Structure formats: C-alpha cells, structure tokens
C-alpha cells in the first residue's frame, strides 16, 4: 500500500510518500480500506516530535479515517467485511489501509460522505467530549470559542449551540467570523481589531464567560483567563497559536473558576464506553442535520504535506481531508 511515512522527527517537508507493507488484522482488530483521512493540527506536531505522544519512528501519522472493512480479526463480531465505517486509529491513517482496534470502529450511516465522516471523528468528538464530560455545559450558559472557524472550533460552535449555550465566536478575520455565524454563533469578536478582554467584558455585561473552549493559547488564553465568570470552566484544548501559556493560579482562586484539560485521545483510551456512546450520539445528530462537518478541501494522499502546512498555518476553515 501507499502511505505517508515519518522516518524521523522533523519538518513536515521531510515526510515521505512510499510503499509500505499492508497491515493485517490481529485479534480484536479490523483492517479498513481508507477512503478519507482527516488532517488535524496534532498530526503536524507529532511528526515534528512536539506532541505529548512520541511514537517510535518510522511511523505513519493520521488518527481518524472513514472507509470499508476489508478484513476482520479473531473475536470481532459487530463488524463485517464490506461495511462502511469510521475509525479512530491513533496512527496509520495517512495510508491506503490501516489496522484498528474494533472497539474504536463504528458503522457509518450512508447519509454521511467519507470526507465528512473522517472529519467527524476528532474535531467534533473533541468538542463534544469537552463540552459534555469536561465542562458539563448547561442551557443558557455562555460559551466562548477561540479559533472558532477551525475544525474543532467550528464543531464547538455547533455543539454548544445545540446544547443550549449562547455562543461567542472569537476569530482573527471577518471571513472566519462569518463562517462561525453561519454555524450558529450568536456574538462575534474579531480579536485582531479589538482588545479581547475588553470585548468579552462588554458582550457579557461584566459577568464574564461560563465556559471557554480555548484552542489558541498565548495571549488569547491570557485574555480568556481574566474573563471568566464565577464557577466558570476554562477548557484547555490546544495551542494553535504556537505558544503554550503559563497560568497564574491565583486567578482561579480569586475568580472561583476551574481550568480543565481536554485531551480527547486519552479520553478514548480511559473511557472507551463513553467514547462509543458519544460517537453514537454524534452520528445521530449528524443524520438529523443538527451538526455538520465543513470540508475546506480534500487533497490526494500524496499531497499530505500541503494539507498539513495549510492546517498548521491556520488557513483552514473547517476541516481538511486526504483521499488515498
């Protein structure tokens, strides 16, 4: 099979498109013939050796795929050859085939296209987990989403609105804000034109925000950390801006709010039953038209470097996918 291979940690440009052995389904696994693979910001960090997880090299990046089951391993009863599925593979997705634990593979409704399904696994699932299990967001609360036009930011806007929150979208351009508004955002803040902390104070009438879904880091995080409501939850999702901020813990003490980590990949391993239930709920919402993956662009697998650079450069509105 063809695959994108990271031979050593380093720049995205060092990735190699090459022939690799076909995977085999071990006990409790299935092999998925990949139709689409989602491209995520952490993929670019992993290949550079900058992520929490550092796999042994060489490895194939890519953690979310949609495709068709081509082989079923021993002990797997809920999946059959020929079944359309979505899968969380953790690694190996930038390829024509991947072997996945059957516990992290779910049947895919015909109503959802491959590119959209591949983008659903990580971005929407992270937002869903963050708002449901980590924030326990309630109807009527305010939700502020940074990077609100990116893959998981846009998902948080949709899901927050669906769960009854008043959604404040924070983006760097009017074009991105327009996309956030089209996906349910109630209030728009362009942080490249106004002081973010001042703007949050104005739109919340001085109360602060109940839940922040923070994807950017750096100065954006610091502004949010000073804009929380009493009993608020500041969700730490990622650092797309490139700077991991340091948090002055006295803010949490004085303002009475929680700083909560959202590491979805770890959640899927520690709470696989909750992960499966979340995915079933997401798929139901999708078929009902309540959530939607916005695919910015789908590129051939061989152009994985271009897709990653676009994601890492924060030029994507919605999701990128790769098609083997």
From TrEMBL:
InterPro entries referenced in this protein's UniProt entry, alphabetically: ADH-like_C (IPR013149), ADH-like_N (IPR013154), ER (IPR020843), GroES-like_sf (IPR011032), NAD(P)-bd_dom_sf (IPR036291), Quin_OxRdtase/zeta-crystal_CS (IPR002364), Zn-ADH-like_protein (IPR051397)
Q: What top-tier enzyme class does this entry carry?
A: oxidoreductase
Q: Which SMART domains match?
A: PKS_ER
Gene3D superfamilies in the record: Medium-chain alcohol dehydrogenases, catalytic domain, NAD(P)-binding Rossmann-like Domain
Which top-level group of life is the source organism from?
A: Bacteria
Query: What are its E.C. numbers?
Result: 1.6.5.5
| UniProt keyword list | Oxidoreductase
Kindly list the GO molecular function terms attached to this UniProt entry: quinone reductase (NADPH) activity; zinc ion binding
Q: Where is the Enoyl reductase (ER) domain?
A: 10-322
Pfam hit, one: ADH_N
Q: Which PANTHER family match?
A: QUINONE OXIDOREDUCTASE-LIKE PROTEIN 2, SHORT-CHAIN DEHYDROGENASE/REDUCTASE
Q: What is this protein called?
A: NADPH2:quinone reductase
Q: What is the species listed in this Swiss-Prot or TrEMBL entry?
A: Paraglaciecola polaris LMG 21857
């Amino acid at each position: 099979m063809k695959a994108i291979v990271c031979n050593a940690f380093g720049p995205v440009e060092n990735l190699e498109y090459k022939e690799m052995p076909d995977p085999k389904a071990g006990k409790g696994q299935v092999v998925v013939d990949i139709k689409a693979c989602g491209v995520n910001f952490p993929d670019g960090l992993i290949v550079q050796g900058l992520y929490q997880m550092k796999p042994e090299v060489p490895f194939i990046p890519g953690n979310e795929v949609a495709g068709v089951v081509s082989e079923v391993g021993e002990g797997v009863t809920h999946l059959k050859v020929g079944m359309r599925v979505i899968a969380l593979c953790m690694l190996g997705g930038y390829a024509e085939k991947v072997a996945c634990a059957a516990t992290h593979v779910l049947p895919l409704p015909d109503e959802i296209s491959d590119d959209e399904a591949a983008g659903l696994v990580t971005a929407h699932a992270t937002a869903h987990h963050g708002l449901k299990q980590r924030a326990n967001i309630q109807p009527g609360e305010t939700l502020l989403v940074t990077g609100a036009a990116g893959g998981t930011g846009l998902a948080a806007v949709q899901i927050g609105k669906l769960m009854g929150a008043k959604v404040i979208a924070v983006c760097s351009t009017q074009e991105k804000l327009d996309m956030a508004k089209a996906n349910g955002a109630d209030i728009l803040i362009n942080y490249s034109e106004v002081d973010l902390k001042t703007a949050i104070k104005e739109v919340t009438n001085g109360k602060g925000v109940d839940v922040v879904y923070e994807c950017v880091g750096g100065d954006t995080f610091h502004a949010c950390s000073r804009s929380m409501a009493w009993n608020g939850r500041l969700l730490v999702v990622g650092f797309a801006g490139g700077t991991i901020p340091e948090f002055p813990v006295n803010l949490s003490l004085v303002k009475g709010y929680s700083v909560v980590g959202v590491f979805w990949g770890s959640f899927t391993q520690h709470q696989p039953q909750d992960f499966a239930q979340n995915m079933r709920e997401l798929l139901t919402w999708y078929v009902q038209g309540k959530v939607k993956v916005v695919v910015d662009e789908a590129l051939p697998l061989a152009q994985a470097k271009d897709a990653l650079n676009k994601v890492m450069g924060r030029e994507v509105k919605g999701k990128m996918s790769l098609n083997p």
